[in-house]
Amino acid sequence: MAENKKQVEQITDMEVDFAQWYTDVCKKAELIDYSSIKGMFIYRPYGYAIWENIQHLMDAEFKRLGHENVYLPMLIPESLLQKEKDHVEGFAPECAWVTMGGSEKLEERYCIRPTSETLFCEHYKTVIHSHRDLPKLYNQWCSVLRWEKTSRPFLRHREFLWQEGHTMHATEAEAREETQRMLNVYADFMENVLAMPVVKGRKTDKEKFNGAEETYTVECMMHDKKALQAGTSHYFGDGFARAFDITFTGADNQLHHPHQTSWGSSTRLIGGIIMTHGDNNGLVLPPKVAPIQVVVIPVAQHKEGVLDANRAVVERLTAAGFRVKMDDSDKAPGWKFAEYEMKGVPLRLELGPKDMEKNQCVLARRDSGEKTFVSLDGLESAVAEALEAIHQGLFEKAKRNLEEHCYPAFSLEEAKAIQEEKGGFIKTMWCGDEACEDRMKAEAGMSSRCIPFAQEHLGDVCPICGKPAKHMVYWGVAY
Amino acid sequence: MAENKKQVEQITDMEVDFAQWYTDVCKKAELIDYSSIKGMFIYRPYGYAIWENIQHLMDAEFKRLGHENVYLPMLIPESLLQKEKDHVEGFAPECAWVTMGGSEKLEERYCIRPTSETLFCEHYKTVIHSHRDLPKLYNQWCSVLRWEKTSRPFLRHREFLWQEGHTMHATEAEAREETQRMLNVYADFMENVLAMPVVKGRKTDKEKFNGAEETYTVECMMHDKKALQAGTSHYFGDGFARAFDITFTGADNQLHHPHQTSWGSSTRLIGGIIMTHGDNNGLVLPPKVAPIQVVVIPVAQHKEGVLDANRAVVERLTAAGFRVKMDDSDKAPGWKFAEYEMKGVPLRLELGPKDMEKNQCVLARRDSGEKTFVSLDGLESAVAEALEAIHQGLFEKAKRNLEEHCYPAFSLEEAKAIQEEKGGFIKTMWCGDEACEDRMKAEAGMSSRCIPFAQEHLGDVCPICGKPAKHMVYWGVAY
């Protein structure tokens, strides 16, 4: 390994400087590049291919549950954005505004969508009339723009790619059910596809989405013990419907306002993958979204029959549905090994003359470095098993990281001390007051991550103010 | 048929008012809706699903040819847009400009991308260094914005969805080859997937893309005999590479500028589908991109076993890979027939108690109205054959429309008279001067569609100015 590392450009060790390690991986694995506008990034082929795989799998699940994709305009007239008070207050400060069309000054300025609730509501008003028109289960894949002051690849962009689901329902119960259903879709996706274990819970009022009645979240823990909000699902009640005057005639022949949800996840998931699974040799990709699942490296490729044997393996694995790439370039094997390690390819297959004699090949796991000899006869199932084992291995390692770094605390000072010494999620009781959240932020640098569904009783009072406790809360430093 | 039509909202006959017929179909087939911003449209689920099918098939072909997808920012700094003189002159007049970020006025204004050559060039400058880095074969699926004064659903939007390919090559020959390869990808796609026959050719200098050395096009003829430019492929030479100072070290160890192409197609293809295949009962979709390929309508569905038999058929066809929907709602069959005719579903399958006794069902073709009884035993192949026959039928009908409405003309007056009486593509010899194109436009209302690859010799002189002719040109009124 040490030898290989010399052959590619070094990246900073994560123990030395995690932030620099992260940036190095983003650049050296060729995931992303900077553009000339601060905070706007270029998704390079390898990074975009991960997103395509995420899209493909998530979209199939949305559709299986009856959702339909649509595309709404990227511009929102200022007057439309202002229709829901809490919503505009939250988003207006970070809008980019279009004020000129061609050479003419516009009569009303338009913001580039930071999110599309207002646009969906305007459309829903024209297509929802009767209870027969409900539910509307829409989703949109697009980019959104938020004019933030700081930026970091994948984690905080001024423009980022995401999906936003927007649904309308005849009853509160149905809308609440949808909110939970989609939260669970995200939780299952993070765990079963991205191998990222989650904590599920509800956001506090301070942290909820602007305009929502309730926001639910899946929170993941990164390798550096910081939190990443990986997906959120919002219940709106009929607040937007009232603001936008959306009504339908019920089976009772009366006019009603529909109940609404929205839910979103974004390319920050790629940042989550990097920081959950990566190591000092670079990226480590969960097999289900890896653009290349198996890289085939011919050994002694100049020898007779080696390339043909390797090509046959590529054909077999491709036919079996794996994403496979052969590298028969003239680079040294050590160089190739290091390069595909940097790119996080889950499985490396080596096949040379000696292996051919024995009707076998070598499979090397990116996550553990483990190498095994495998008979070519059962290659397809051996590869499938290895990829599944890698997924499981990644998930279990991340799960241990999460479980080993959740600490109860019984005073603000203790919470602060644990955060400074160990990081992680710190759980305390909480009175429900925003003032205590503000104190935790000011004194211990942590925001509330969620009120987890899995509540524990750690006492009867809020350790911050001493008032009676309402919930147990997870606190953390978040990306 | 007449009976059915009474049961859904009427659309204008295409012979009465083609433009109104088109708008009616767009709305009644639930493809698209208007937003509150002029020229910006909402792609509704059924319209967007057509686009998803187009994307899916086209993207697979791009990837098969080695292209990789990327995503670049939506904003272009004004200074970047200005780097290539012809390009900025063409696009600046229709840019939407962002001048405010949050509450702050920007130091430099940014335009929302009308196309992304400049952004790609900026990125290529950072990733191309050696001949080993070439070719770069990138594609991007995104929306672009052009602040046009007039708009029409799918055909002319201020914001529309498209793909833009951008490639860089070591040699002129390779770049020219790519330009033609991608033109042929479009031509094959239009004909083999969308059943839209094309005329392939080169644009005149007046009609070429701003900044390109040469633009190639596939031109389709709509039912009303007007032209639709369905896809274009541009050869740039090294003009942008020079303007952006992009160089690479060749195998000869010298610095060179790479040669560039770009190529694009957009959601206007959906407009093309509507106007090529539609009829007075609504939309007619080519089977390969139809969101629903077969609609299954149970007959006498209250009778015992009917719904089960229909469900079994849906399961079989879905398992065979067809996109199938059953409508067992309580609407009258005539209503359902008319509704799915309006939506252009290629094949309707009817199955009732009498059919069940005979182990058969009815297949009704949307394009011809033809109904056949088909044994349930070989249903999968019968459906596959019917869909293929529909594709062929649509293509041949459109091909006849194209071939029967191409007329030679030998004077400007004749060209004008033919256009007024018959419409279609009018072919004449041409001297190559823009002044003659301007006269044709001013006097006969036609622009040059292309210099077709399939040249004919219709004489030795330009019928407009009398100077020696260089090419035969197709003229037409274009969308």
Structure in words:
- The structure is a homodimer of 479-residue chains.
- With 479 residues, chain A is an alpha+beta fold.
- Chain A folds into 3 domains: 9-277, BirA Bifunctional Protein, domain 2; 292-388, Rossmann fold (3-Layer(aba) Sandwich), CATH 3.40.50.800; 406-476, Translation Initiation Factor IF3 (2-Layer Sandwich).
- Helices cover 36% and strands 27% of the residues of chain A.
- Chain A is built from 15 helices and 23 strands.
- In chain A, the strands form 5 sheets. An 11-stranded mixed beta sheet of chain A has the order 3-7-8-14-11-10-9-22-23-21-20, with helices on both faces. Chain A has a 5-stranded mixed beta sheet with strand order 16-15-17-18-19, with helices on both faces.
- The first copy, chain A, is globular, with a radius of gyration of 25 Å.
- In chain A, 49% of the residues are buried.
- At the A-B interface, strand 2, helix 3, strand 3, strand 5 and strand 6 of A face strand 2, helix 3, strand 3, strand 5 and strand 6 of B.
- Strand 5 (96-101) of chain A pairs antiparallel with strand 5 of chain B.
